[in-house]
What we know:
The chain is an all-alpha fold. The protein has 6 helices and no strands.
Amino acid sequence: MGEKVPQTYAKHVRLDPPFHFFLLPLAAINFLLSLWRLIRQPGGETAWLVVLSFAAVVAVLKIRLYALRVQDRVIRLEERLRLSTLLGEPLRSRIGELTEGQLIGLRFAPDAEAPSLVEKALAGKMSGADIKKAIGGWRPDYFRV
């Protein structure tokens, strides 16, 4: 594994090469080729290949979305646990008021900045992106899917 690049708001999005550069393009190309074949050689068999190719595209996308959804659930749990140890009692009792997006945005906040960001998020209804932009010292997350 190579060196880990420092993360910032501008550089925290992660690409998954097997998905983004192999599975997704292959499924899309297969669908387009089957569609092209249907246009050139109409028939039941080629129409069925278009349906199957489209099903493959949907399956590839759903597999990715399921993984991201599970990741979001784990992040929410981790952040609730982390915040319950970092926050004082007035804010600790309000952790449940944070939205999913806010909790996901807070995962990049270092422990020292988290309490003030939680307070701002609850007071001003900051979005997850707003929270990420407000972070001064980025806490990297290299384990994202």
